[in-house]
Amino acid sequence: MHTAVKGAAVALVAAITAGTILMTNQSALAKKYKYPEAAKGDVVEDYHGTRVADPYRWLEDPDAKETQAWVGEENKLTRAYIDSYPAREGIEDRLKTLFNYERFTLPQREGNRYFFTKNDGLQNQAVLYMQKGLSGAPIVVLDPNTLLADGTAALTGTNYTEDGTLLGYGLSVAGSDWQELHVRDIDAGKDFDEVLKWCKFSSIAWKLDKSGFWYNRFPGEGEPGHEEQGTRSRVCWHKLGTPQSDDVIVHQDESNIELGFEPFTSHDGQYVFLVVYHGTDPKNGIYYRAQDTSAPFTHLVDHNIASFVPIDNIGSVVYMRTDLDAPRGRVIAVDLNNPARENWKEIIPQKAEVIDGVSLVNDELVVTYMRDAHHGLMLFKLDGSFDREIALPAIGTVGATSGQRGDKEMFYSFTSFTYPTTSFRYDFATQKSDVFHVSKVDFDPTQYETKQVFYTSKDGTKIPMFITAKKGIKLDGKNPALLYGYGGFNISMTPSFSASRLVWLENGGVYALACLRGGNEYGEDWHQQGVLERKQNVFDDFIAAGEYLISEKYTQKKLLVIQGGSNGGLLTAAVTVQRPDLFGAVLCQVPVIDMLRYHRFTIGKYWVSDYGNAEESAKDFAFLYKYSPLHNVKAGAKYPPMLITTADHDDRVAPAHAEKFAATLQANDGGDNPILIRVETRAGHGGGKPTSKQIEEQADLYSFLFKTLGIKPESVWTNLKEKQSRKG
Asked: Known catalytic residues?
């Protein structure tokens, strides 16, 4: 280890050497914390005959002076607890060392130009580069770090013309989902004058002749629906070099204002397509029209049938991945000249594995498949016949593939728990993969191993889980274990690398990733088993994962940590109020908590397909009220130590969720464990968060855990001793 330690830690080293500092354990922390006062209001609402109190409704207004005062006092309490931990500074230094490595995104070729982003290590934001040819020198196209001093301006998307000379890109600030769209002349190194606003989850689809592009946005000021966040999506045509006020709306649906539209164009310049979606529902539609016409879009498939993901087209034949009549996925071909469903042709039928991604490169179908929550990579001919499988370095995840139909090369990324994300170039002629961009991190991966286990949930379902730890770890129940989960929105939890996670692993921690129902690990059926009235399955899966780690002697209750964010924050909160006896500490990050009102905040109304709506449906209210974390906190119950995190600019999951939960827990907890909330400033749901803020947050999380659980962070403390020794 080569941690850089600041001079302020020297006195600490001397104290350690003299044996005058003892690491506390949980029982030594026993004391009642003086939490900031949170006034209780008298708000009560009637849900289908059930009256439900909402005493902290006032916290839903983030700008109210009462909310800001309460948040300020809570942050002071949290800072005092974390900053009193003597090794926090050393943990942050170790994180800086671990983060300080080059990180690349997958190359994308347009013309003879290759585009990718790179972070040198501690840069707040990754920089966009371009190189001509495989051996060209990379040059900077756009450096977001130069835009704002605090590093909170983030690149949110890039779209290039076919020759790679023009770039359309999005910028967001302070973690917001809202973005502005800009256009850059890459060779001139200058932006065009126009700036396109009112964009969220927007994409740019260039016309082949480079005269302009289609993009999606929401109503601007003065347009109907501007106040209704996230409704009335429309697709506009923007002519390059003209102001946004001249843009023409080419598609909208006033009869269904909650539909979203994402445009993309075919590589051959024939068509412009729209992916039509309703929030997070995996069912989506596909509309299309010729690029050179102003005719209305033709409905190829409507949005309420199944999932359809266009791959590419060859002339009028469009290849798509779908789960229609195939919950694990299949590939079909649809001729736009004869598009009736009975004429669709199945190319690759459903298999035992889940089809997780398909691209068309070298006139072959490149299929990323998933077996038991880890990836493989196969090539198929256009008639669906199997060609070959591309060998991957280990059990892990193919993050993405990059290439076009006529290319003789393809790029793909690979990662695993101890394998930093690496870009590979595959040559179709030689059938060989070579490393294109590699990341070198200050740790020895040979010291660790990952195994996959299958455990039994409450209803008998077998659930996969990955467990990573140092080789030779003793299964004596004395290891701290961090259990992570998500379980929702059709999102799969597959192996991935995290530099910050190494702090946990190198200090003797066990890391476990549970692949819960509600995700896509086994296809759409797996997802459906964890939604709506079946959401309790997800919580049962997670609880069973913790019980497995304990029964197999990986850890014990007082050393078992659970962690999750967003929908995973709901997960950790729900299992905490259901089984407070099972966990030694909880990290509940940017959580969805108030399940009776979540649809009223930000874009929450688009999560109804997974969660339901308590106001509109008595049936939904019954199961939501039964598990909603906010409404199941019990007065006098003893809850485990908990650190809840949120951000003041989170416009995806409103900070009120975390704040109301913290206030409720603090008022009702009958134990002596710390229940704290950390509210980040100038940050959002997590996307675009500067590296410096990521490191600060991770240092706080680990300091909270190490202090609360009484873990001695060997990698940090050993280096402190070594530094003191070198100074004599």
From this structure: 566, 650, 685
